[in-house]
Specification:
Blueprint (H helix, E strand, L loop, with lengths): L8 H20 L5 H17 L9 H19 L10 H4 L14 H9 L3 H12 L4 H8 L3 H24 L15
Helix pairs in contact: 1-2, 1-3, 2-3, 3-7, 5-8, 6-8, 7-8
Length: 184
């Protein structure tokens, strides 16, 4: 069926009001700077206005796809590594999703495990876990079929679980106060 042809300012305003915060959070999870995230969201909505006839009725996955491509273009132009996510749980507390899952698993541990995964694994996990998209919507963002996205998600989850178990198997340093007299 496709998007309706009447995409006026009212339509755009309602899309902006409904999805702006989601696009900003998408950027916050990928950039270390809140201002850069807000700027990314503005660029996404400029593209949405220019290409408003192409935006589907459920526009959020399409907006995420635009944001992903804008970030990729930016990183390619810089020829360097992208800005990293905040590395402490306190920094990420305001960015975390509404599901409350971040409270049960150490955010720092998950972020550390994510860093050992390749970029495509990280992105599919972020889209489904943090952005709360369905596999079909994640496929739309990534520009692949639903079946391909499902396989990527399955493999990425398996690799994340392996990375998490490898991390938990590593001995954690004991605090100096926990040493016994004999050890001193």
């Amino acid at each position: 069926m496709g998007p309706p042809r009447n995409r006026d300012e009212g339509w755009f305003t309602s899309l902006y009001v409904a999805e702006y915060a989601n696009v900003v959070r998408y950027g916050l999870r990928r950039l270390a700077d809140a201002d850069a995230s807000a700027e990314l969201a503005q660029e996404v909505f400029v593209v949405a206005w220019r290409r408003r006839q192409e935006v589907p009725d459920r526009g959020l996955p399409w907006l995420y796809g635009v944001a992903r491509r804008l970030l990729a273009n930016h990183w390619r132009s810089r020829r360097g590594a992208p800005d990293v996510l905040p590395s402490t749980g306190a920094d990420l507390a305001g960015v975390a999703g509404s599901s409350g899952a971040d409270a049960t698993v150490g955010v720092t541990d998950v972020l550390a495990a994510l860093t050992v995964l390749n970029e495509l694994d990280q992105e599919i996990l972020r889209l489904v876990g943090w952005e709360e998209l369905t596999v079909s919507e994640a496929a739309q963002v990534l520009g692949c079929t639903r079946a391909t996205a499902a396989v990527r998600l399955h493999r990425a989850r398996r690799r994340l679980a392996e990375a998490m178990s490898d991390r938990s198997a590593q001995p954690r340093p004991q605090p100096a106060l926990a040493a016994t007299r004999e050890e001193l």
